[in-house]
Structures are given as C-alpha cells and as structure tokens.
Specification:
Blueprint (H helix, E strand, L loop, with lengths): L2 E4 L6 E2 L3 E2 L6 E4 L2 H14 L17 H9 L7 H9 L2 H6 L2 H8 L8 E4 L8 E5 L5 E5 L6 E4 H18 L4 H23 L3 H6 L2 E2 H11 L2 H14 L4 H8 E4 L2 E4 L6 E3 L6 H18 L5 H7 L3 E8 L10 E7 L6 E8 L6 H4 L7 H12 L8 E6 L5 E8 L14 H22 L2 H8 L4 H29 L10
Antiparallel strand pairs: 1-4, 2-3, 5-8, 6-7, 7-9, 10-11, 12-13, 13-14, 14-15, 15-17, 16-17
Length: about 500
C-alpha cells in the first residue's frame, strides 16, 4: 500500500515520485513493486529502441547563434578565448557545447523519469578529488548546468562524449561502439544493483580510488596501469599549498597572485586603484557573508583565514567568459594558504526545456545539485550573490580551487583505457541518479537486455557526426569574421 509523509524539503528531485518545480507538500512513498511498474509502463510508452539514432529537425537552431546568445552575459574580452578553445578539435567543441546539445536533446524521446541531472556529463567532467575524510574519490566534478531533468540526457551526453573522444583519437568504429556499449551497460547494471539496495546504502556508496585499483590492475596492461597510478599520485599533490607555490610570489613583502594575462589577472591590473580597492573589499564582504551557507564547523574553520589577494581567472572551455575569481586566504601565518574560487553561476542550459530551478539563486542551484549528486563535496562549497559598482547582481558559488584534483585526459587514452574509464564514469553517473531519482523505476525501464545499450551506441555515433558539422560551422564563422577566436599557444 502506498503511503504519504509530510515533507517541507526544498529539493526538486523526489526519489520515489519524480520531479517538480516547487517543493511538494507531500512526498509519495510508493512500494518497490509500484515503482518497478512505473518503469515498465514508461518502457511501453517509450520503447528503449526509440533512443537510437539522431537526425537534426527540419528547423534546428543555429549552433553559432546559441553560442553568441551565451556570450551576451559574459566578459566580452574573454569570449574569443572560449571560441579558440572550442576550435581545437571536435571534442573540445563538444565540451563547450552543452547548450547546443540541450536544445537537441529536447526533441528526443524521454521516459518521463526524472533525476537531478548534471546537465554536462561528458567524460572530462569526471575525475579525482579529496573527500573531507581525506580519501581520494572518483566522481562528477562539474555542476554548472545541474537541474532536475531526464536521466537519459546525462547518459546520452556521456556516451556521445566517448564516441567523439574516440574519433578524436583515431579509434575504429568497432572500438568506439564497444567503448560506448560497455559504458551504457555499466550504467544499466549499476542502476539494477542500486535498485536492490537500501536507501542509506545507496547514499553512502562511493568509488574510493584505492578500492578500485585492484580491478583496474586486472583490466589495464603494465604501461597504462603505471600511467593511472601516476595520475593518482599527482592528484594528491594538487592542493592549496601546491597552488600557493605555483600561483603566488612576494611583492614588497606581501604574498600576491602571479599575473599571467589573460588567463590570470590580479585585480589591480585591470581596475583603477580606487576601483580595485572597492572591488577587493566587496569580495572580502562576499566571503564573510557566504560563510552562512556553510556548516557551523566549516564556518569556524574559514574564520581562521584572512583575505590576502584576488585575481580573475579563465576556467574550463564552456565556462570561459563567465566571471571567475581566485582568492588567496592566509591562516596561522603567511605559509598557511587556502585558495578559494568564486565562479559565476547563470541559468542552467537545461532550463528552457525542463523549467526553472526551485532555487532563485543559481549559486545555490549549483551547490544543492552538487551535494545531491556527489558522494562527498568540498567542505567550503557555498554560494552568495554579488553586486558590482554598476549595480548588476550576479550569482556565485565558492569552493576550494584545488583539493587533490586529478583526471585522465581522453586525448591520452587508448581504447582499453577509455573503456575502463568510461565504465567508471557510467557507474558514478548511475550512483548520482540513484540518489536523486527513482532508481527502481529507472532500472525496470532499462531491463536486463542490451536494447538500451545498442540504441545509445547508435545515437552516439550519429550525434558525433552532428558535432563535427557544428565544429565546422564554428570554424567557418571565424573564417567569415562573424565571430573572433583567440588561439592560445
């Protein structure tokens, strides 16, 4: 028998009952049998085979216009860097084309089962980071576009990224198909496993790197295993102290962030002295006020650090042009650093197609989505709104700049490595979806056969071809002087 319980939580994803734009007054608690029936009913409504293939609609939005629309709210002199980075290869283009793909996915079949979606779950947005307990975990690491949405969209974005990365590396069609098929099968079998687990067990599930190494040793040859171990060891060195040594120097007895324009520009280099002083103090106030979004013990820890210096930083591919600041904080002395990053949060690229976030503040949208999807999140993860001297308000989220960060660049992978890595990403994505959505219904929809796996292989190859056409359209737009691109050396 179904039961209902009073609920006041503001989350938009409801594990047993789908997703709403507003917090429901009551959360339905269906039985496992009823939840499985939802999934099977969805399969009848939208057969798994329907997810296969891709062809652009008769009237498809111009991909360059989508990118230009995003550029309107970004720092004008940084936008050419974004285009330059996207020109590097079809895979680099894909990394910056989340908005284009969201528009394309809007017309694809949906099961109607919703989760907290990443919104940009390509293979390079997974990697290593340190948990608060100082364990090295593998998880999703980018949540700028997170919003409640169809689980299929994340799976398709991940799968297509593997197909595109495989093309970029010169893999054969057979090799690419096997990589994608292995990843989707891992998502499907992982979701089935999560469907059979208790709620708390799903919540506590995570991929400890040390625990995963024995399996990796079985799957990789000696050369690639050595490279994997090197990446793990290197990740442990990427922390605030490493950033401190690399990104700062002493000027007139004061520790400051090193200038490396246009990628890193200290505040005093692009603002007049009085403006720079006002801006630095405003950021200082932002840090003080953002502390209220942290847990009490972490707020207490942060209060032991003092603001020291500020610089603008160019980050990522798709994010280039959004406002991002790196903030040097110092603790017990001038050799006790903490680097924070404040990154602008705009509306998710999914919003036009699935509705607005339940959170009015996009920084909070990112943080709440990240906390829901990740096994463990940065201890300094929080949000705040910032108003500049012209009176324009923008939303930001803050976290540590580096905390045991690491990843394996797809460009450096051989087919065997990409298959293993893709499987890790797929398991992680399934775990994230199982935390926020109806894992039993999704597992029932996917079933035991490989029907969905085969459909996504077909979709991924077809969409990889579309991505190549869009990449060529960007190159033509630059050649025709429609847009300007800066090619970094």
């Amino acid at each position: 028998m179904s039961t209902e319980t009073e609920a006041k939580a503001p989350t938009a994803a409801v594990p047993n009952g789908g997703t709403t734009s507003k917090a429901p007054d009551r959360v339905p608690h269906l039985t496992p049998k009823e939840r499985a029936a939802r999934g099977k009913a969805a399969r009848k409504e939208v057969p798994r085979e329907k997810h296969g293939g891709w062809s652009p609609p008769a009237v498809r939005p111009d991909p360059i216009e989508i990118l230009e629309a995003q550029a309107k709210t970004r720092v004008k002199d940084l936008v050419p860097i974004r285009y330059g980075r996207m020109l590097a290869s079809p895979f680099a283009f894909y990394r910056g084309a989340a908005a284009i793909m969201a528009s394309d996915l809007a017309d694809t079949p949906r099961s109607g089962l919703m989760v907290q979606a990443c919104g940009d779950a390509h293979v390079s947005n997974f990697g290593l980071f340190g948990s608060p307990e100082r364990e090295l975990l593998f998880d999703i690491n980018d949540f700028d576009e997170t919003l409640p949405g169809p689980w299929e969209w994340d799976v398709k974005r991940l799968a297509a990224s593997l197909a595109i990365a495989g093309r970029n590396n010169g893999f054969s069609g057979k090799e690419r198909s096997q990589i994608v098929r292995d990843a989707v099968a891992q998502y499907r079998t992982a979701m089935t496993e999560f469907a059979g687990m208790h709620d708390l067990a799903v919540w506590y599930a995570h991929l400890r790197v040390q625990e995963g190494l024995p399996r990796v040793r079985e799957l990789l040859d000696k050369k690639n295993l050595k490279e994997a171990e090197k990446i793990v060891d290197k990740a442990r060195t990427k922390d605030s102290m490493q950033a401190f040594e690399k990104l700062t120097h002493v000027v007139d007895g004061k520790r400051q962030i090193v200038s490396d324009p246009p990628l890193i520009v200290p505040i005093e280099e692009f603002l007049e002295p009085d403006q720079a002083e006002w801006f630095a103090e405003a950021i200082h106030r932002l840090i003080r006020s953002y502390r209220r979004t942290l847990l009490g013990d972490r707020r207490h820890l942060l209060e032991g650090f003092r603001f020291s210096h500020l610089a603008r930083k160019v980050v990522g591919v798709g994010s280039v042009g959004t406002r991002a600041w790196i903030i040097l904080m110092l603790g017990r002395d001038d050799q006790d650093p903490l680097f924070l990053q404040a990154k602008q949060a705009e509306a998710s690229v999914l919003e036009p197609f699935v509705g607005k976030s339940a959170y009015a503040q996009h920084g909070q949208r990112v943080v709440e989505g990240q906390r829901l999807m990740q096994a463990a999140s940065d201890i300094f993860l929080g949000w705040e709104r910032f108003t500049d001297p012209e009176g324009t308000s923008r939303d930001f989220y803050l976290r540590q700049l580096r905390d045991w960060k690491g990843s394996w660049a797809p460009e450096a992978m051989v087919p065997q490595v990409m298959s293993v890595y893709g499987g890790m990403c797929a398991w992680t994505l399934a775990r994230a979806h199982a935390r926020s959505g109806d894992r039993i219904a999704i597992a029932a929809y996917l079933g035991k056969s490989d029907a969905f796996d085969r459909a996504i292989v077909e979709f991924s190859e077809a969409y990889a071809e579309q991505n190549e056409r869009d990449h060529a359209a960007l190159a033509k737009a630059v050649k025709d002087n429609r847009i300007e691109a800066t090619i970094e050396v």
